[in-house]
Amino acid sequence: MKRLLTAVVLIPTVTYVVLWAPFWLFIAVLITVALLCYYEYTGIAEGYGFGRLSPLGYGAGVLILVWQAESWPLVTVVALVAMAAAMRADNLSKSLPRAALLLMGVVYVFGCWKAALELRQYHSHHWLMYALLLNWAGDSGAYYIGRKFGKHKLAPRVSPMKSWEGAAASVVTSMLIGGLYLVRFIPGMSLLAAFGLTAVANMAGQLGDLAESAMKRGASVKDSSGILPGHGGLLDRVDSTLFTLPVIYIWVKLMA
After folding, report:
1. pLDDT tens-digit profile of 1-50?
2. How many CB atoms lie within 10 A of CB 39?
3. What average pLDDT values come out for the chain (256 residues) when binned by 10 residues?
4. Residue 112 and residue 65: Cα distance in Å, rounded?
């Protein structure tokens, strides 16, 4: 019931912010979500025994989101500063892993949300809505079909509850709902292209889900937080989306 009630509140709110909210509200929500995701990421990273990551990651991440020029020079600077700051660690054997965890978190969280900003601002609000919708649909298909019919484990070491049947249901559900959404709202989108892109984006999202599960399992953490009743943490809810967004963004840029 908690899971359902959370979805009832979140889905209309997110839909409004993505499709109709003024830009200032959208960017405020996006920055807030990204900061919360990064906070949860640092909690997972702490489970690897390197302590809390430097606050540098928060500031660097927000800069990446609002930076109008190419981001790679900024990411390079963040890497160098993180390496220099890590020298202050009491145990120097952990300085380089701490710097690597910080940089990976900045790219993983803020770099992927940057793709969301670019899709909405420079292409179409519907591209971003599609990226979210295909994962909502895929997660629902995997949850209900996998729970009832799942027999063959997908990745038992990483996520014992996931099955190949659930994964297949996720792809099919995403293709039907996400693909048809694209055809309806993106001019010139063929059904074949919509289904093909959706299948690839969904598989990227499932990989993202497993990647976050692996991070949590390595850190002996069940959920990234308890901020969303019935769903765990915010990062638990968007782990698929973070992997999906760059795939869709690259496709849009190549096809533009």
Report:
1. 556 666 677 888 999 999 999 999 999 999 999 999 999 999 998 888 76
2. 18
3. 67 92 95 95 85 82 84 78 72 75 91 94 91 92 82 84 90 94 93 95 94 89 75 86 95 86
4. 9
Nearest 5°: CA angle at 11, between 119 and 22? 50
Cα–Cα distances in Å, from 179 out to 56, 106, 171, 175?
39, 30, 11, 5
Half-sphere exposure for 151 (CA within 13 Å, toward CB)? 1
User: Residue 57 and residue 12: Cα distance in Å, rounded?
Assistant: 31
Question: What is the residue whose two structure tokens read 């919360």?
Answer: 36
DSSP 110: I
Enter the pTM of the model: 0.90
Coil, strand or helix at 39: helix
Side chain identity at 178, as an amino acid letter?
Answer: G
| CA separation for the pair 147, 118 (Å, rounded) | 36
d(CA 159, CA 198) in angstroms, rounded, equals: 23
Instruction: Encode burial over 220-256: b for 16+ CB neighbours within 10 A, e otherwise.
Output: ebebbbebbeebbbbbbbbbbbbbbbbbbbebbeeee
Ramachandran region, residue 205 (left: φ > 0; alpha: ψ -120 to 50; beta: rest): alpha
Element (H, E) at 154: strand 153-155
Report the alpha-carbon distance of residue 33 to residue 31 in Å, rounded: 5
For 71, the token pair is 């981001």
User: What DSSP designation does 247 have?
Assistant: H
Token readout for 118 is 């670019």
